[in-house]
Design brief:
Layout: E1 7-8, E2 14-22, H1 26-38, E3 43-46, H2 55-58, H3 79-84, H4 94-107, E4 114-115, E5 120-126, E6 131-136, E7 141-149, E8 171-174, E9 189-193, H5 197-209, E10 212-217, E11 224-225, H6 233-241, H7 243-252, H8 271-284, H9 288-291, H10 301-318, H11 322-328, E12 343-344, H12 347-350, E13 356-360, E14 366-369, E15 373-376, E16 379-382, E17 385-388, H13 397-400, E18 403-405, H14 412-415, H15 449-469, E19 472-477, H16 479-494, H17 524-536, E20 542-546, H18 552-559
Parallel strand pairs: 2-3, 2-7, 3-4, 5-18, 8-17, 9-10, 9-17, 10-13, 11-12
Antiparallel strand pairs: 1-2, 5-6, 6-7, 14-15, 15-16, 19-20
Helix pairs in contact: 1-15, 15-17, 15-18
Bound molecules: ligand NA7.
The site of ligand NA7 has 21 residues, from helix 5.
């Protein structure tokens, strides 16, 4: 990659630059734009994919789409960008989101600083130099003052190693790594493992194509209809006329998406009122029932059960065979919405089709993957294709794929062996000048992702600018402040019902992973206040050290 001001040491072939960003999804693209175009730093971005998009590059499975409205699922940093892009559906599908990200990359001329098909394999901090030594799988070695792994929270696939793993002789697909050219299941016998948000999007469409689809369900889920529709002209015009207000409203809400029906308590209403209210939210679609119905359903078990029973009744109504309906219905005691609520379109009706069957693998677990299919409790299911829709090693999986070593050679994996340790989800003690985006212990996946990403990228860029203008060589989270933040994250989480669920929010989907609730539930708005205040106080909670050596980044920033 040509850089005018890069310094190449002829002795060890290490390229000196200001910052390395890993990942070219929503986060990596905006980070590059800010660091390169606002701060005029010398930045390189690496991504193992062949193009931009991050999660939207890989997740090309049928039905993949966002589940907050498209106008909200987009960057807010540029009024021009908001005006010039027109979404075609209320909830954009993967190809359109990928086109949008390609448009952003081209519009801001980002591609020239992204190296695709290249994985960053190691990043080691050198405290004497106050720099990260970074290596890619193409053998490129870099020395960068700042290291920003913008690797995504849901990007490292969870692939269960069933007995016989790898022995199936038919086609094998992973939803999180779907072939670019697509897959035609026409006439095929297909098995799909998993019934999470991903599987629920894919199953109805695959069922329409396949000769037969067998769904392997371990835990039934509470889903609500997405209620997608082609983008209405009036809706688009209203959004474009009022984007600042739309964004302001989003920031006023817990999850960064406005809902206008939220009432304080399900228990303060009569059964009839409650049912009518839930029905209205159900008809709205998306997350309206989950985070836009009653404020107490994620805090109070009794309130939660009213929503859970509402969804169970809907499932029983939509699935004709009562035996299948009972397998699809989460049992008594399983709380609603404490795992992420999937949004669906015709998911439950799909089980009324003749060519779809459901296998309850909680009752009859998968024993083995064979050359011809899957064996459950002595029954052999024969397939032409098997799909793994088994989720992700969330939050930490993608970071651990890189050999990240901080001060004294300590690995991130070792430092986080009992669960992630961060200060406000942005930085970790012992890992100076490294910043994570929508990482663990930030609002992350429970906040509007593009807005959360912008908040983090802007905070990081401001922090770097502050450091450069003030001659600092390193910034590092204090251990004490990290401890306090971790306790606070836990305290807030424990005031809700969410940590009780067996979910990827707590690492419970990955055997052997420490089970710690990883999302900050204080809400995006409050969180933004916290991190802004830290910055305003000269990065309270962090230790800043003067630069050991004068560097080019400072000169560039000072010249601005
Ligand atoms: P999820 O929500 O983690 O769902 C994964 C599904 O795969 C879920 O039904 C799991 O059952 C099932 N699973 C995982 N491991 C196994 C094993 N070993 N055996 C059987 N079944 C298994 O991932 P998604 O991709 O659907 O959604 C993740 C997020 O991506 C989503 O929330 C959006 O934010 C985007 P389980 O429930 O664990 O019993």
């Amino acid at each position: 990659m040509p850089h005018n001001n890069q310094v190449v040491s002829s002795v060890n072939s290490v390229v000196e630059i200001d910052a390395v960003v890993v990942g070219a999804g929503f986060a990596g693209l905006y980070m590059l734009h800010l660091l390169r175009d606002k701060l005029k730093l010398n930045v390189e971005v690496y991504d193992s994919a062949e193009g931009v998009g991050g999660t939207w590059y890989w997740n090309r499975y049928p039905g993949a789409r966002c589940d907050i409205p498209s106008h909200h699922y987009s960057y807010s940093f540029s009024a021009e960008l908001q005006q010039e892009w027109t979404w075609s559906e209320k909830y954009a599908a993967q190809p359109e989101i990928l086109s949008y990200l390609n448009h952003v990359a081209e519009r801001y001329d980002l591609l020239k600083d992204i190296q695709f098909s290249t994985r960053v394999v190691a990043a080691h901090y050198d405290a004497t130099q106050q720099r990260w030594l970074i290596e890619t799988d193409s053998g490129r070695r870099l020395s960068a003052k700042y290291f920003v792994p913008a690797v995504g929270t849901l990007s490292s696939a969870n692939i269960p190693k069933f007995k016989g793993h790898g022995s199936f002789e038919g086609e094998v697909y992973f939803t999180g790594h779907w072939p670019k050219e697509g897959v035609d299941f026409t006439g095929k016998r297909v098995g799909i493992i998993g019934t999470g948000a991903t599987a629920m999007q894919a199953i109805p469409l695959i069922a329409e194509q396949a000769a037969h689809l067998t769904v392997f369900q371990r835990t039934p889920n509470f889903a609500a209809p997405l209620v997608n529709e082609p983008m209405r002209r009036d809706v688009d015009q209203a959004a474009k006329a009022n984007y600042p207000e739309l964004r302001r409203q989003a920031w006023e809400t817990f999850a960064g998406v406005p809902f206008d029906r939220l009432k304080p308590s399900a228990l303060e209403e009569s059964e009839e009122q409650r049912r009518a209210h839930y029905e209205a939210c159900w008809q709205d679609g998306g997350f309206s029932l989950w985070i836009g119905s009653y404020g107490d359903i994620l805090f109070n078990k009794e309130a939660n059960e009213t929503a859970a029973e509402f969804v169970r009744a809907k499932i029983r109504e939509r699935v004709k065979d009562p035996v299948i309906a009972s397998v699809l219905c989460p049992p008594a005691g399983q709380t609603y919405g404490t795992k992420r609520q999937p949004c669906e379109t015709n998911y439950y009706e799909t089980f009324n089709r003749q060519n779809v069957s459901l296998v309850d693998i909680k009752k009859a677990p998968i024993e083995e993957i064979t050359g011809t299919g899957i064996t459950t409790a002595g029954t052999q299911h024969e397939f032409d294709a098997i799909i793994y829709a088994t989720g992700f090693d969330a939050f930490t999986g993608a970071l651990f794929k890189i050999d990240i070593r901080g001060r004294d050679g300590r690995t991130l994996q070792e430092y986080w062996s009992q669960g992630p340790r961060t200060l406000v989800g942005l930085a970790a003690h012992g890992f100076p000048n490294m910043f994570t985006i929508t990482g663990p212990q930030s609002p992350s996946v429970l906040f509007n992702m593009p807005l959360g990403i912008e908040m983090h990228c802007e905070w990081i860029a401001d922090c770097i600018e502050y450091m450069e203008l003030n001659g600092f060589g390193s910034i590092e989270a204090n251990r004490k402040d990290e401890d306090e933040w971790i306790s606070h994250v836990k305290e807030v989480a424990d005031s809700t019902l969410l940590p009780e669920a067996t979910s990827w929010y707590s690492g419970a989907n990955i055997p052997g992973k420490p089970q710690v609730f990883m999302v900050y539930l204080g809400g995006g708005k409050h969180y933004k206040q916290v991190i802004t205040e830290m910055a305003d106080k000269g990065y309270a909670g962090f230790k800043l050290e003067q630069a050991a050596v004068a560097d080019s980044a400072r000169k560039v920033c000072e010249a601005l």
